[in-house]
Amino acid sequence: MSFVNGLKCRECGREYPIEPIYVCEFCFGPLEVVYDYSNIKKSLTRDKIQSRPQNLWRYRELLPLEKEVADAFHTGFTPLIKTDNLAKFLGIKELYIKDDTVVYPTLSFKDRVVAVALAKAKEFNFDTVACASTGNLAHSVSAHGAKAGFKRFIFIPASLEQSKIVASLVYEPNLIAVDGNYDEVNRLCSEVANKYRWAFVNINIRPFYAEGSKTQGHEIVEQLGWRTPDNVVVPCASGSLLTKIWKSFREMEKVGLIEGVKTKVFAAQATGCSPIVTAIKQKIDVIKPVKPDTVAKSLAIGNPADGFYAVQVVNESGGFGEDVSDDEIIDSMKLLARTEGIFAETAGGVTLAAAIKLIKQGYIKKESLTVLCITGNGLKTQEALDGCTVKPHYIKPNLAAFEETLKKIKLKDR
Ligand SMILES: *Cc1c(COP(=O)(O)O)cnc(C)c1O
User: Fold this and answer.
1) DSSP 3-state percent helix, strand, coil across the chain (nearest 5)
2) Pair type for strands 151-157 and 80-83
3) Can you tell me the distance from the alpha carbon of 137 to that of 240, in angstroms, rounded to the nearest whole number?
4) Gap from CA of 241 to ligand 1 centroid (Å)
5) Cα–Cα distance measured from residue 136 to residue 37, given in angstroms and rounded to the nearest whole number
6) Whole-angstrom distance, CA of residue 323 vs CA of residue 269
7) Tens digits of per-residue pLDDT, 71-86?
8) 110: closest CA among 87, 133, 81, 130?
9) Omega of the bond leading into 105 within 30 degrees of 0 (cis)
10) Which of 24, 53, 206, 269 has a CB 3.0–4.6 Å from the CB of 277, allowing a cystine?
């Protein structure tokens, strides 16, 4: 039932069979999955998709698997929320949140990529899965790997928030906490991947893993009633998600599910780690690596693997990029919670804060339809809000004490 043709180098176009490989032997370009679009077009319809269970496997023809996945988690199909309060606050007509704070089972969009990566690792007959992670990927590989019965090696920077470490440890993987930043962890993992026959989801099976990100785009299109938004704002770490949302729109057009994609794609990064946005603003396509320093740890990749392609997509689509300070990130996390009741992690603060700037500058028009990709849950990064939230009212357990306090609470909040 597979519609996969093979792998193809993004640079020189050389073709490869489906194997756990990720770079071209000749030019070292990244490999990408290519599909048999004309056959998908003959077979896949809106009705067919809509008749299937509400999870990411409903788009299986556009995913790189040979067999139907029967025993995985019901990952995906998160809500697309039309905001009223937030849209009004920002003075924009139609503003939607793609709410991946509630992806099953580990509450970040990484469950999408890992679901696909581990299904593929099974097809390749690996018994061990591994990853280099800034946190969310660690949770996801730990959890999906536990259910699928893989041995798991998880590499993280030792400086990660304590709550993020616990949320991996509970699944009992082999957790390797490395004294170094993410880029150093990643370099180490490349060496490990050369030596051991493990499925490193974001290294040797990265071409398949990355395809899972497309499902966020598929869902946005279906949930908007089979059309693409005018604008989409995407947080960038490696830049992969941004490129795959674009790929998902173009593919859906190619196989006849939609027509006339005119979406502008916008990149959002923290100022303390903004190599992709910097290249966009400077109108160059060379990514200058940086040393990350930001509260948005899940986006703290200083040397982004897909940065070059992310810049290309932004330019090709007529979008732009913005970077935001740590204070702006925290303010936006609170704004989203206060207006829409959604508690996003720091990456969500990055996306919203960048969108606010893009609206102010006129890159996002007030009359247009915009989707913000909110990619992870705030319960995972509570430390980021230490000292930044409103305070509880401490009282003795009696009515008089409560009423004394009530007097101090502003009229509008009572
Ligand atoms: C990994 C991640 C991203 C983006 O990742 P890319 O490497 O750019 O695909 C965005 N948000 C969160 C919360 C993440 O964990």
Assistant:
1) 45, 15, 40
2) unpaired
3) 14
4) 7
5) 32
6) 5
7) 778 899 999 999 999 9
8) 133
9) yes
10) 269
Instruction: Report residue 295 CA to chain centroid gap.
Output: 17
Burial (CB < 10 A; 0-12, 13-18, 19+), residue 182, is buried
Alpha carbon 303 to its chain centroid, in Å, reads: 17
Closest atom of ligand 1 relative to the 135 alpha carbon = 15
Decide: helix, strand or coil at residue 87. Answer: helix
**Pocket of ligand 1 contains residue 375 by CB under 6 Å:** yes
Rounded CA-CA distance 201/173 in Å is 15
SS (H, E, C) 264-313: EEEEEEECCECHHHHHHHCCCCCCCCCCCCCCCHHHCCCCCCCHHHHHHH
108 lines ligand 1 (CB under 6 A): yes
Q: How far apart are CA 237 and CA 347, in angstroms?
A: 9
pTM of the model: 0.96
**Ligand 1 centroid vs 298 CA: distance in angstroms?**
6
Categorize the per-residue pLDDT at 134 as very low, low, confident or very high, splitting at 50, 70 and 90. confident
Beta bridge partners of 96: 82, 371
Q: 3-state class of 247 per DSSP?
A: helix
Which secondary-structure segment (H or E) carries 211? helix 206-211
What distance in Å separates the CA atoms of residue 95 and residue 374, rounded to the nearest whole number? 12
Extract the tokens encoding 147: 């259910």
Q: Which residues contact 223 (CB under 8 A, 6 or more apart)?
A: 80
- Cβ burial, residue 290 (10 Å; 0-12/13-18/19+): middle
Contacts of 413 (CB under 8 A, 6+ apart): none
Contacts for 12-20: CB closer than 8 Å, 24+ residues apart: 18/64, 18/66, 19/124, 20/124, 20/126, 20/199, 20/204, 20/205
Helix (H) or strand (E) holding 192: helix 182-195
Closest ligand 1 atom to Cα of 241: 9
**Residue 268 beta carbon below 6 angstroms from any ligand 1 atom:** no
